[in-house]
Amino acid sequence: MATLPNPLPSLATSGLELPPGALVDTTLEGPWHEPLLWYADGPATPGDWTRLRDAGRSLGLLPVLIDGGRRDHWPEAWDLDPAGTSYPGDHDADDVMREAWDAYAEDELNTETAWTGPAPAPLVDGPDSPEFLAAAMADMLSDDGSWLTGTRLALVPARRSADIPAAIGWSGPLNHENDVARLCAVLRSWEDRFGIRVVALGFDTLTVSVGRPPTTQEEALALAAEHFAFCPDNIHQTALDTLEKYAADALLGRESWSFWWD
C-alpha cells in the first residue's frame, strides 16, 4: 500500500506525549518491516481522542479506538495482513459494491433487482462537524458505561480516516473481502458523501461516526443497498433482514454505523 513515510519508528523521539503502550508489527506472515500501529496499554478515557488527534496530525498519525472484545483479542492476534493489502485509491467504490451486490443480493435478499449505483449525498448536513462528532463518539465509547468496554486508543499512519483499516492490513472482513483496501475505497466514498470517520476497530468489527446521516426514508433505503454490499452480515444475519427494515432502524438519522463480519 502506498503511504507517507511512517513516523512510528521514531515515535519515542517525536515529542508526542503518550501513555504507556506498544508498537505492533505482528502480522499473519511474521514481523512486518515497520510498525503498523501504536496502541495504549490501558483503557482510553474521554478526552484522549481529541488530545492525540491534535498532537498526532502533524506527524501523519490518526487515532482509532481498539476493541479487544470479551476475549481480550488485541491487534497482535488479529492476523494483520499488510502484504495482502493494496491501496484504497486504486479501487472504485461503485465497482466494489456492484460486484458484491451481484454476488450476494439474489441469494441473501431474494431479489433480482440490479445494482443502481451509489446513493446521493443527503441534502441536509448534520448538526456537528465530522471531526467533532467523531471525537464525541470516541469519548462516549471510552466512558465506563459504554457498550464497548476497555477500548484502547491507537495511532495509525494514514492519510485519511477511511484508510485506517488498510494502513494496518486489517483482516476483519476476510470472509467477505480478502483485500480490505477495496472496502476502504467505499469508506472513502462514505467519508465524502456522509462525513464518516473510522472510530473503532475490533477483530472483526468496525464502528464509524456519521456526520451527514440520511434524513429521509428514500435516502436511507438507497444507502441500505450499499451497506449490504459492504457487509452482508449486517442484514442477512440480523432481525433487520430486509433493506426496508435496515434503512428505517439502522440508518435513518443515525450518527453511527457498526459492522460485523461473521
Kindly summarize this structure in a few lines:
This protein is an alpha+beta fold and 262 residues long.
**Assembly level:** single chain
The major beta sheet can be summarized as: 7 strands, mixed
Distance between the termini: 26 Å
The radius of gyration over CA amounts to: 18 Å
Strand order of the largest sheet: 1-4-6-5-7-8-9
Label the overall shape: globular
- Residue runs with pLDDT of under 50 for 5 or more positions: none
- Number-wise, the strands total 9
Mean pLDDT: 94
Structural class: alpha+beta
Query: Approximately what portion of the residues adopt beta-strand conformation?
Result: 15-25%
Tally the helices: 8
Q: What order do the helices and strands follow?
A: EEEEHEHHEHHEEHHHE
Give the proportion of residues in helices: 25-40%
Architecture overview:
The protein is of the alpha+beta class. The longest helix is centred in the middle third of the chain and has 17 residues, at 93-109. A hairpin with a 2-residue loop joins strand 2 and strand 3 (30-31). The chain is built from 8 helices and 9 strands. It has helices at 48-57, 93-109, 130-142, 164-167, 180-194, 217-230, 233-236, 243-251; strands spanning 21-24, 26-27, 30-31, 37-40, 61-66, 152-157, 196-201, 205-210, 256-260. The mean pLDDT is 94. The strands form 2 sheets. A 7-stranded mixed beta sheet has the order 1-4-6-5-7-8-9, sandwiched between helices. A two-stranded antiparallel ribbon has the order 2-3.
Features:
seven-stranded mixed sheet, 262 residues, globular, alpha+beta, two-stranded antiparallel ribbon
